[in-house]
Design goal:
By secondary structure, the protein is an alpha+beta fold. The chain has a domain of 143 residues: Immunoglobulin-like. The chain is 44% helix and 20% strand. It is built from 6 helices and 12 strands. The strands form 2 sheets. The protein has a 7-stranded mixed beta sheet. It has a 5-stranded mixed beta sheet with strand order 4-10-9-6-7. A hairpin with a 7-residue loop joins strand 6 and strand 7.
Length: 309
């Protein structure tokens, strides 16, 4: 009786906790990229649940069918050879599961890395998303505006985010629109997203980058193209221009609220789109070669002048 009451209490506790949980944002997609990722997650969860159920059923069968019996002390079980069919099934099924999930993962990677399905023929909105400790800067070069810690995007239009960091490596992530991608200091990575539904979403840095990482979040608002255009016009009429001194101040470590500017920091602090560590080495190497060549030429000229004299 006590055991039954304990099991009942445990089950009620689990039910109570689960009913208070909100829906996972990754399983509530609002765009085609997130839809693909959510379907892959559900497929994986269902496959894992099926495997667990089969294993537990087999465990119960084995425990019941081959439970200990009252045999004499000198009883010796009969010698049994391995069954190739059983061994083949035990090895073959996991191989098939891994192969299937690998194929699904590779296909999904190609899909989410390219332009969102259904938006291939539309011009994307390009947004430079750069991070600093511990804030996000969003530059709209076409609209010539910039925001801090919040992002406005139009629905039914592809989005092309160009990601980089002004400090440590971070990870740009809007769970309801797609997967995460790294933003690095000396390189620009691209992330293609789209929002099908108007609403407010949460975005954040998904990579630990210091003590302020927990609050390194930003708000995302998806709206119609008309509302987005009206917002752009309002920003141009009311916001202050950003300059180099102000931007250097924003890069100082700390947390900030929402901020809006006309112009972008790309004018005086461009993104490292064509700059890599290898390029930097090559530039320094070329500069060194040019310096040595100039020195050799100057030395040769001096010898030639001395000879003529």
């Amino acid at each position: 009786m006590k055991l039954k009451m304990a099991l009942f209490a445990i089950m009620m506790s689990i039910v109570t906790v689960l009913t208070g949980c909100e829906q996972l944002t990754v399983l509530d997609p609002k765009g085609p990229q997130a839809e693909r990722l959510a379907s892959d997650i559900m497929l994986t969860m269902l496959m894992m649940a099926g495997i667990v159920i089969v294993v537990f059923v087999m465990l119960v069968i084995m425990l019941v069918k081959y439970r200990a019996s009252k045999q004499p002390a000198d009883y010796e079980p009969p010698h049994i050879e391995g069954n190739p069919w059983v061994e083949g099934i035990l090895v073959g099924i996991p191989v098939l599961i891994v192969a299937f999930l690998s194929i699904v993962s590779v296909q999904s990677n190609y899909i989410v890395e390219s332009a969102p399905q259904g938006y291939e023929d539309k011009e994307p909105l390009v947004v430079y998303a750069s991070s600093s400790n511990w804030k996000w800067h969003f530059s709209y070069p076409e609209e010539d505006i910039e925001t801090v810690n919040y992002l406005y995007i139009p629905t039914d239009r592809p989005l092309e985010f160009r990601l980089y960091s002004h400090g440590p490596i971070t990870s740009f992530w809007i769970p309801q629109l797609g997967g995460q991608k790294y933003a690095m200091n000396a390189h620009v990575t691209k992330l293609h997203l789209a929002a099908d539904v108007e609403g407010e979403y949460m975005g954040r840095n998904a990579n630990f980058s210091g003590e302020g990482f927990a609050e390194n979040q930003f708000d995302v608002t998806a709206m119609s193209q008309k509302e987005f255009d009206e917002w752009v016009e309002e920003v141009k009429e009311t916001a202050e221009p950003i300059n180099e001194a102000k931007f250097e101040e924003l890069l100082e470590p700390g947390h900030l609220g929402r901020m809006t500017f006309t112009g972008t920091h790309l004018e005086f602090s461009p993104a490292p789109e064509h700059h890599h560590e290898g390029d930097k080495y090559e530039e320094e190497h070329n500069h060194s070669d040019e310096h040595h060549s100039a020195s050799r030429k100057e030395s040769s000229d001096r010898k030639h002048m001395n000879y003529n004299e």
